[in-house]
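In the current project phase, the collection of sequences with tokenised folds has grown. A sample record is quoted in full directly below:
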Amino acid sequence: MKQELQEIKTNESVNLLLNAILQYGPKIVQNRPFRKMAMAMGENYLIKNGKNRIKEDPTLPAGVIEDQTAMSLAILHSVNRALTDCKLSAATFDKAGSVLGRDLFIEKSKRLAKAASFIEEHGFAQPSFLLISPTKACNLHCIGCYADSDSHVQILDYDIVDKAITEAHDDWGVQFTVISGGEPLAYRSHGKTILDLAEEHPDNYFMFYTNSTLITDEVAQRMANLGNIVPMISLEGWRERTDARRGEGVFDKVMASMDRLYEAGVLYGVSLTATRENAEEILSDEFIDFLFYKKHAVMGWIFQYMPIGRSYTLDLMPTPEQRLQMWKQSWRVVREKNIFLADFWNHGTVVDGCLSAGGHGHGGYLYIDWNGNVSPCVFVPYSPVNIKDVYAKGGTLTDIYNEPFFADLRKWQHDKNTQTNGKNLLNPCPMRDHNAEFRQLVRKHEVDPIDHNAAAALQDADYARGMDAYDEKYQKIVDTVWEKVYVQNSVLEAEDTEELLETIAEG
């Protein structure tokens, strides 16, 4: 009881602190003693909370809770850097504090208000966000694009996009929407754009993945005036790597776009695609320091290449050995540099594994593409239902959530973690890490491929054999890492890594 009262008191203090920041505006965070006090309070709360969870929650290995604490501390320090180093517009400051900070991370009042009844009826908490690709159109033609985007215009009607966002907010308490593509800034429907979506949903926070080449001074200024939209800018590494995949001159255009956003007072981050060719480069100290300290990126996401989409190939996937090194280096960046950099394939310990199909306990999402196909994930191109058909029949997002394919996938996620005592958190992706089991689910429910690439992959025997071999090899790595780092709570030293890789190589 004493501890519960202390946690309530701490939460109240954090809320009071955030409300003071919102009330008095950017000037108060420029006060060094105040900022130092706020950081100390935040760090103390997160560290104590982590230690208490380790003592009281025997269901999770200490290493998992330590990962979650480390990422939370990195987020806190990233916020501090943004407040200290970035020239935030008034609207950006307000929305980042009120919607992103208070509503989504601290109070979570709208989501929690909907959670109890949803869990009682459906067994899991409701999805915590939507991911929508409203257009396939793109002004670039990147090698291996997961969406196979080009200049051909395919769009999801603005009214449907707007309805989905409104319904997710009203029925699920969702205040966070991710926009992908295609190129989101190329989207046009009824004369409206994704910036109009952000304007019409002011208590929703929008994050969109962009090549950034369409960010003009005017676009940057409108984002600054809106405040509730943050771009994640795609890069493949330094100039040579980025231009090789995205087109000559793109790297320099990205740098110019970052400068525009910084000068306008817009928060932004980076999206890094890891392949066999650049896995070491994008996580090098030089590149990370350049992005986060010199170019003022606030957060980053690593997307390991998935063999889907245009000219899919297993040869671009980071090898199992590279993936292990990425796991080690990315956590070093998080822990030692206090940078918010998340890898969806390597950091499953932070979010209880896979977030697809709506999630299986701690949040998740559904993906809607430009044709209205609803899939478990942006990297899982198989869909049991189309939102246009559902809406035409008077259905809802919750009807889509209850689709048997999605329900079975959520059950698979939950059962997999239970059966492996959480080990699956290190290789959580059904499509990438457990492809044989995923293929069985696709065939069981007879879900449709969303394009010819997905259909071809499903029928490709060499693809299946290659994925199965990859999964088997990485599983051996996961088994060792989980036991040593998460069960024994030990450090995986360099010699341990070498020994593990030698053992795997020997078969």
